[in-house]
Amino acid sequence: MENRKKLISAKGNKKVHMGVIPGHFATNHSHINYYVDLNSIKTSFRMARETAKMLAEKYVATPIDTIICLEGTETLGAFLAQELAEANVSSVNNGKDIDILTPEINSNGQIIFRDDAQAKIWQKQVLLLISSASTGWSVERFARCLDYYNGKLVSACALFSAIDEIIGIKVESIFSPADIPDYNTYLASDCPMCKTKQKIDALVNAFGYSKL
To answer: Is the entire prediction scored with pTM above 0.85?
Structure first.
């Protein structure tokens, strides 16, 4: 599978790249015809720093109090907070102390913020930072959670996103299906690869893949 991997550079910054592998892959809520490998962006401090610069440009005019990091994006979140707070004087976040949080996920898959962390959420302007958004399911689930804690989700920010908006929430990204022209995502019941009995190559999530 690895010998099919291709690197794609971000538009405007050749120092940032993702890997893509064609095939038949299953997530916990869809089937996709490409595995999008974003782990290098999340684990390389140089690439995370360059990516944060690109993302920060999208939020010069958006007040942000807290960045919530999901799917292993904590390193990127720290660089993004730094870029937002140290941006030029025209940025509304210049000089701010932006909080960075990772929520707890309980055994039922629920997103939880403990009592001592809730002050960072309550009536705050929150930016969600995730690895990928193929269907918007993760963004929608987090938005429902944030409503419970009385926070305001101002935007979702993904390294790769197949959507531009979900339930009225803007989704910004570095990479999109325009970088993978024949990328598709399907409900498991509608997957054409399953219908032709094409073997599933691997189970995938935001942290990687497990071959079958």
So the answer is: yes
Q: Which residues of 61-77 are buried (b: 16+ CB within 10 A; e: fewer)?
A: ebebbbbbbbbbbbbbb
Query: Both tokens of residue 205?
Result: 């999530």
Reading phi first (left if > 0) and then psi (alpha if -120 to 50, else beta), residue 46 is in alpha
- What's the Cα-to-Cα distance from 73 to each of 63, 80, 88, 111, 134, rounded to whole Å? 20, 10, 24, 16, 17
Domains, in order of start, for the chain? 2-205 (3.40.50.2020)
Instruction: Decide: 4 and 16 in contact? Cβ < 8 Å.
Output: no
Task: Determine the Cα–Cα distance for residues 182 and 33; give it in Å rounded to an integer.
Answer: 8
Q: How far apart are the first and last CA of the chain?
A: 11
pLDDT reported for residue 87: 65
